[in-house]
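Re: [ENG-882] Designed sequences occasionally contain unexpected residues at chain ends

Forwarding the minimal case from QA. Structure tokens:
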């Protein structure tokens, strides 16, 4: 469970700091249903940019922001549906859109779920401590943004080989940036730096890979947003057959726990890079699908609830980045495949991991031979705005894009998707993946074997207890906000 023990002395300091910075913290209930956001805050949002450094933007940590750069309020969940002319399958596939969060990525929600419980209990001292955000990319951006809004000094940690855009953005927001060696799969190096920083009591580590607040935020907010979007788009006789999420911290896949409760029989697919097939066959390696596939199984991954592993070749996601964004690629999709112009114009909503998520859905649809009455869902973590430099690198490596290149990329990397490098999980395979946690979390990170066993054998107690904590956290947030107003 998330520790909600209160330290009243630190709590009082946090209240004072929040009052000085004009901070009011949203509840889980408000993030799920922004109609509950106070009228005063909604009026201020009408004149506030989506990415402005303003505490009122904490209320925009929701999937339901109006898709506009400034002045937007709230509506239904933002999603895009992919037509079968693009996917090549009869099954309907849709994805929630992460671009319209502050920072342009849904990880701002995950970091909120980790920081706020410690802030409103006084376990983290906003006046005297620094918030450390170990990350493979977007999580430290979200953590730095939330820290800045709350007046907290932040330290972002991410691999040196992540996209240039991430570092440029962080330089304007984070108090400090640490680039660790390697690419997105080099998490051990991140953990080593985290262990070093933990020696200073001024640093508090918010490790997305083990913070249950990350899992809970997606269970509560992302899961419900997917369910609402499905109920809005479905037609008579259609069912939500499955969800697919590439796993980095394994936070987003927590939404699957909620959805399985609402839609019995739903399949949960965990995606990873083929070049780093940890879940598929205990493998390892470097890859280019930024933010996923980290050579270990996160503590917060509810493996017992996962039905399938789907490995995506990072060459597919890289080449489709060009197909979806180069003018020649978009022209091919419209003129040769008949993809409608509105969809083509929205393909920039997919970042590299979003493309991988789409491919996971396509592979799941083909594996289970899903049809017109089946619907699959996923999320688009961020958008192409974080990867312009990657397109430039591909141009330098492969030359100018062309109609022929578009046709080849479609045939090889999208239309040619097969059901290879997939594994349907039975009891023993789930247990194998779960057991991999031992080597990271018990041997290296100080967890106990008893805690690991509890995730598996005390399943309802362990995961159910976490899932039931949102209301208690909301009560603490409301108490904190009332004290701030006095």
């Amino acid at each position: 469970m998330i520790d909600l023990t209160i330290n009243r002395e630190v709590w009082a300091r946090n209240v004072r700091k929040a009052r000085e910075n004009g901070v009011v913290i949203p509840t889980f209930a408000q993030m799920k249903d922004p109609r509950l956001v106070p009228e005063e805050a909604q009026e201020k949002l009408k004149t506030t940019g989506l990415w402005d450094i303003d505490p009122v933007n904490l209320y925009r940590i929701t999937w339901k922001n109006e898709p506009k750069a400034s002045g937007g309020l709230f509506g239904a969940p933002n999603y895009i549906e992919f037509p079968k002319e693009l996917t090549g399958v009869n099954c309907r596939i849709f994805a929630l859109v992460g671009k319209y969060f502050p920072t342009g990525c849904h990880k701002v929600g995950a970091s909120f779920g980790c920081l706020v419980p410690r802030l409103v209990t006084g376990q983290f001292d906003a006046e005297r401590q620094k918030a450390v955000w170990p990350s493979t990319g977007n999580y430290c951006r979200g953590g730095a943004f939330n820290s800045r809004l709350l007046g907290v000094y932040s330290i972002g940690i991410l691999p040196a080989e992540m996209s240039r855009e991430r570092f440029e953005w962080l330089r304007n927001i984070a108090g400090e940036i640490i680039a660790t060696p390697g690419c997105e799969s080099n998490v051990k190096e991140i953990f080593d730096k985290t262990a070093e920083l933990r020696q200073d009591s001024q640093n508090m580590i918010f490790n997305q890979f083990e913070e249950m607040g990350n899992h809970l935020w997606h269970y509560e907010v992302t899961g419900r947003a997917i369910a609402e979007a499905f109920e809005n788009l479905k037609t008579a006789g259609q069912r939500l057959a499955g969800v697919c999420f590439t796993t980095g911290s394994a936070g987003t896949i927590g939404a699957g726990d909620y959805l399985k409760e609402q839609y019995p029989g739903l399949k949960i697919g965990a995606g990873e890079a083929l070049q780093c097939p940890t879940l598929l066959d205990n493998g390892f390696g470097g890859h280019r699908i930024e933010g996923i596939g980290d050579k270990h199984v996160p503590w917060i991954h509810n493996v017992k609830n996962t039905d399938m592993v789907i490995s995506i070749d990072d060459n597919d996601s890289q080449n489709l980045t060009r197909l979806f964004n180069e003018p020649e690629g978009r022209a091919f999709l419209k003129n040769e495949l008949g993809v409608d112009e509105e969809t083509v114009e929205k393909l920039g909503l997919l970042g590299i991991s979003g493309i991988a998520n789409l491919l996971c859905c396509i592979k799941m649809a083909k594996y289970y031979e899903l049809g017109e009455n089946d619907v699959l869902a996923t999320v688009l973590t961020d958008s192409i705005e974080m990867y312009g430099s990657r397109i430039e690198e591909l141009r330098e490596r492969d030359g100018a894009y062309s109609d022929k290149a578009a046709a080849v990329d479609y045939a090889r990397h999208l239309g040619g998707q097969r059901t290879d490098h997939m594994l349907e999980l039975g009891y023993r395979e789930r247990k194998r993946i779960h057991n991999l946690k031992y080597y990271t979390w018990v041997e290296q990170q100080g967890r106990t074997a008893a805690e690991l066993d509890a995730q598996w054998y005390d399943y309802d107690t362990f995961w159910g207890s976490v899932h039931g904590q949102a209301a208690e956290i909301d009560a603490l947030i409301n108490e904190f906000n009332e004290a701030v107003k006095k």
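QA comment: On inspection the terminal residues look reasonable. The mean pLDDT is 94. Proposing we downgrade this to a documentation issue.
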